Queue: 2 jobs
Job 1
Amino acid sequence: MKKKSEVTLDYLDECHLDKSLEKMFLLVASETLERFSLGKCTISLSLISENKMRNMNKKYRNIDRTTDVLSFAYLENDDEMSDIKDLGCILIDPKRAKKQAEEFSHPFKRELSFLFIHGILHLLGYDHQNEEDSEKMFALQNEILNNLTIDFYTDQKKLKKELKIAQSMAITPYSHFNVGAVLITKSGEYIRGFNIENSSYPATICAERVAIYSAYSRGNNKDDFVAMGLITSSNETSTCCGVCRQVMIELLPSYIPVYIYNDKMDKMLRLTVKDMLPYAFTDEDLKS
Ligand SMILES: [Zn+2]
């Protein structure tokens, strides 16, 4: 049996960006290659200028304009002396990545990760020359990007502040168990919810659902949500009730992180929506 992939990154930043990016790229590489059984392998990544990218594109592809990402697979891997597979080299122009991130209004680091995953898949033989191949490549690329453990969107400091405000708004004359929920959207909205109790007990509603329904009522769609936060008045990180889990799996993307805080906010549990409801009953079951 082949070992899972264990990747080393040969990283060169000619554009002198934030040093923490190297760690991010290594994580993206390992989480991408985790899906393939390559054993020990290495990838080179260089961040280069627009000019250099243009020259490389002209030299190797005979296209006289710049581009966002280029990959060069090493086809020969006949170095018998080494058990480390050299996958090849990826070039990214971060200036162009920045422009594209602004165009699609998503975070710069997400665009860089997207381009890197795209480059890695090319090194592994994926391509987008025809419709069938591109469908396959783009589906995998998005799946990998969405399921990265890196959260490109959440400002934890802001989330914690919003959660405390949401929790303080809870209407709980019967249980005094105050819950705050916050849904974060791609456009940077932090939408609050809190539990609302009623003397007719079944009319009570949880914070999670108030946040979700409120977010939808503002015109958001499922794909707009990037993370959720929760806080309860418990000393431990209490999670959501079954009804909320069912609503969450249907109305939120299954891969988004859910950060669950205890009352003092000195404990935090990070799960995804799908972690909370495995084997969920969904609209797909109604169709089958
Ligand atoms: Zn609930």
Job 2
Amino acid sequence: MKPEWAYGTLVKVDDDPTGRLLMLAPIRFALTLQGLYPFWLDADKIKAKQEQRLRALLAHAVAKSPYYRRRLAGLDIARCSLADLPTLTKAEMMEHYDELVTDPRLKKAEIAAFTDDLSNLGRLYLGKYGVSHTSGSQGQPALIVQDEQALSLIFAVQFARATKLKRRFLPHLGRLLNPARMAVLTVKPGFYPSAAAFAYRPKYLAPIFKVLRLSHSDPMETNIRRLEEFRPEYITGYASALEALGREEAERRMNLRRLGSLKQITNVAEPLSDAAGDKLERIFDAHVTDEYAMGECMVLTSGCITGRGSHVNADLAILEVVDGNNRPVPPGTEGSKVLVTNLYNYVQPIIRYEVDDRVTMSAAPCNCGSPLPHIAKIAGRTKDLLWIEDGGTRREVPYYVFLAPLHHVLELAEHQIVQTGPKHFVVRVVPLRGKTLSVDRIRQLVLENVREEGLESEIVFDIEVVPEIPLGPSGKVSRVKNEYAQTRTAASPTRPVRADT
Ligand SMILES: [Zn+2]
């Protein structure tokens, strides 16, 4: 069965050797956006679309994936309820990767080798697939393959749902004359999902969408100068990096507010407190929003255009908030994990995929008027913070400094980063069953990343291979642990954990 895109046609540029379609592509893209715009959909239409896409995905998975044919055997996939479908863990997905995907040419080992060579970033695998490692904090790394339509959708949804529109008819067509300018503040380029999404950005977006990539490991003065020259309308980054920019603006070392271009700031991948979000809004006079997504489902949510938090793109994905036994919890109640179904990735079907995030859905509709379900809170991603302490001042170290290099270690089952001293860290790694881990290789990978982040002289770390990571009090693995903070807190309980609060 062919994937179905009732919202419009996303153009495949590779099918267009003459380049004529490339010229039409932005117009067709604008039409697609028109269809995705949520404020002229209603909850029933969205639900119907979700149901239709779920059935199409299940039929495709059973027809083309040996894994799903086996797992879903005996189920009436045209009528069964969502709860009848088996869940999928990351470990299961990776163990059965080669038979789970629906293109038999895709092989885990070969894709992993492809991603080991950074020069492949942005190059379509087998001429048609974008490849990424999962981001986030789910222990072992996972590979994600998606086709060009899925890659386009990431941007279509971002345009249509995470920005305010001026008019109803072909609202983004004006971008042909006046391209959107987005600054993205991340770690250096790589195959992790957010970086890969930009690397695989469809070519036809070039005239309507300018991107400035900044690395928060570059000197702040350099980033400030480049931001002021670029005059972004949108800035996307991790909370800690956005807060650092806010401090520069507040101290008047940066003047983005005076330049008047900035409309929206989007936080991804790290929790941003309400207080910190409010402060950023005051400093920049721009709307601050959140996005909750993962490499396995990049369009899971879009930031709310008027309030804080995000809306689930329920026509393109299913987010089930559940307790420890996969039973649904009602809106307003925090779940212990979520089950994510990606309704647009047909090459690597991801159905009821378990993610250890503690999410609370809003019990009341959002004030913005969107019919899409609103997420009130995400608690599971609040990691213990890591920092470097030097002469009484603390500087936060993003977990990603240690996590990003581990994405290259496919023999890895689990990991834990522990801060043990003012600048001392232990990277604990657990091998997959029957595999061994090379301490030297992991040390080298982490060291390279620490060096590239400019933290070589500030961070001392050890690699420890252990058989398992003990479970924390919530029954989950805590992948970031600050033992040093715990000793400090015991000694001076009133001291704030973060230097800037
Ligand atoms: Zn809203």
